Amino acid sequence: MSDVRKEELDEIVLCLKKALADPELRKLNQRAVQAMVWHRQPAISGMMMRLRKDEDAVRRKVFVAMSELIYKFHEHTLTTSLARAGILNDDRVHAGSSLDKSGGCFEIFCLDAKERLYLILKSYGWLEEFFRLYPLHFFENSFQFVDRVPPKKLKAKVKVVGLGIGGAMAVSGLAKAGIDVVGFEKRNEAGPSSVGSRYQNASWRAYDVASKLLDEQAYEELIRYRQKFTVNYDDGTTGFMVSDRVQIILGHAIEQSIASAKRFGADLRFGTKNVIQSLDDSSDIVVLFTGAHTAEIFPEIKPEMKIIEWSDIDSDCKMWLRIKESEKKDFFCIRGGEVGAEKWHYTIESARNTVADIIRVRNCLESQYKRTMNKVGDDEAVKQKASAQFTAQMNQLDKVQKFMEETCNEDRRFDYIFTNAPTNEHNMSKRDEAAKDGSIVLEGGYNVEVKMASNSKFVAPSVLDKFKADLVVCGGDACVPPNPQAAYGATLACETAEMVVQLATGVGHINAILEEMKSLSEHVDTEWVEEVRRIKDVLSDYYNARGRAENYFQFIQTLICNLYSLPPFDG
Predict the structure, then answer these.
(1) What is the per-residue DSSP string for 27-88?
(2) Is 489 exposed, middle or buried (0-12, 13-18, 19+ CB in 10 A)?
């Protein structure tokens, strides 16, 4: 598996610059642009095919190593495996045996170890494919299904740094799996500038991941706002269809994930200003969900990240949020916006009854106002303007909150309308038009960088010593900043969270096997122990390989959206 080279990505950047200079292509919406360039630009899809082949090659290495070990363990469990399946009788084992401790019995240990390897494959969703490629292991168990194996305790310690949407969901999933996990967050848990204070909307496809990592209460809360779109039929009627996307407010999703993690018993530490000093004991894995500036926050990992960037195609964007009384009587969510390069904007609108979302916006507004006043110094004119705007926005929030609280009418809703657009004169006129009814309660700007990390796992001795860990990994925005127009950043962060849980589950099972091997050293040699230990290495290689492919997809999305937001490049 080789690193992604800048020369390869330079070719892709150049071909997309040329493609996005086409006036006809620039008339389309960005989803259509993506579909067109993936088909018409073989360099783009060719790179993804290479990365997926690298990912699959590592997965096949896992399969080979697993098969060899399963065969080796099964040699000593021929009769106990059949007793486990209920085909033979054995007083030491039955279908419901936990096998947590072998009691010094090598045969029982081997059965437990073999089952743990199966459970690793199952956690990745690979078991069916593994049995197809290695049918011996299916038939030698007399068709036993791994779903019948009772849960096993995992021996892994994981620390997650950063409790945004990816980190919070990872902590919940790790705790749900029974892994010893600690989550660190520099912000407070509640109040202004807290971890849950993000008011931005996201169009989110990771609800299948959430169903695995969160408890049912949090999951049901997150999938409430399914996006809908209008369909015009040939008979002249219209209707709504439900999209495969869910609209979430990031702060609300983070809060729900944190609540789920707490219910699973996770150790969460908010207000951690110096995380390195807070790593008071060793870990198997330290996970960094610390955003787009991770390499600057932790410069120790920057050399291994191998970040590739293109500063000439950064894009400045504007966002604004409107909140107003709604005429809708039921939950509602829809996405829309103007189409066309540079002039695009996208809006996610929902009708909600959750006053907590209004309070979150109020906290954000208060924090934003304090920062503004600290920056302006002694300029009284600027202070007066900022104060007047703050007062008007607070009055709007007060009015809508009072509207929601003054009655017990369950049909009462408010409209939550969040808009993103490239910063230019055309789009600022849209913002000004939207402001005429006084419903804009928050606005801000941001810069989207085009860059990608080649690696997301780090094993340099200096890094491992610094973080007191056997392995350090990162994910989400740390590897590739998202362009919000692509509406994929939160989805990628959550998918990375699932990858973290899979990796930690594998490490937890392998550690349990190795621990028992120590107590049964008269039955195993060092080579066998090393074979088991190497599974951890190849699983971390898979994390890196799959992460590289997933990050490349977001890189292409960000690249297209930035080029779609800027004037066409000459030449």
Answers:
(1) TS-HHHHHHHHHHH-HHHHHHHHHHHHHHHHHHHHHHHHHHHHHHHHHTT-HHHHHHHTTSS
(2) buried
157: tokens are 């310690």
Residue whose pair of structure tokens reads 């490239």 in the numeric block: 422
Sign of the dihedral through C-alpha 391, 397, 401, 406: positive
Nearest one of 27, 16, 211, 64 to 534, comparing CA atoms: 64
Residue showing tokens 């085909």: 87
Of the listed ranges 12-16, 74-78, 144-148, 375-379, the least confidently predicted one is: 144-148
Judged on CB neighbours under 10 Å (0-12, 13-18, 19+), 464 is middle
Alpha-carbon dihedral of residues 213, 219, 222, 223, nearest 10 degrees? 110
434-453 pLDDT, tens digit per residue, is: 999 999 999 999 899 999 99
At 63-101, the pLDDT tens digits run: 999 999 999 999 999 888 888 877 888 888 877 777 877
- In this prediction the pTM is 0.93
pLDDT of residue 384: 92
Contact 425, 416 (CB under 8 A): no
With a CB cutoff of 8 Å and minimum separation 6, the contacts of 310 are 13, 450, 451
Copy the structure tokens of residue 305: 């990240």
Residue 12 CA to residue 163 CA, distance in Å, equals: 33
Residue 50 CA to residue 5 CA, distance in Å, equals: 13
One-letter amino acid at 337 equals G
43/191 Cα distance (integer angstroms): 47
Residue 408: the pLDDT is 63
d(C-alpha 447, C-alpha 117), whole Å? 45
What element of type H or E holds 105?
Answer: none
For residue 123, give the amino acid letter.
S
How far CA 246 is from CA of 201, 205, 350, 354, in Å, comes to: 10, 6, 11, 16
- What residues contact residue 300 under an 8 Å CB cut-off, 6+ apart? 460, 462, 463, 466
Distance CA 256, CA 253 (A): 5
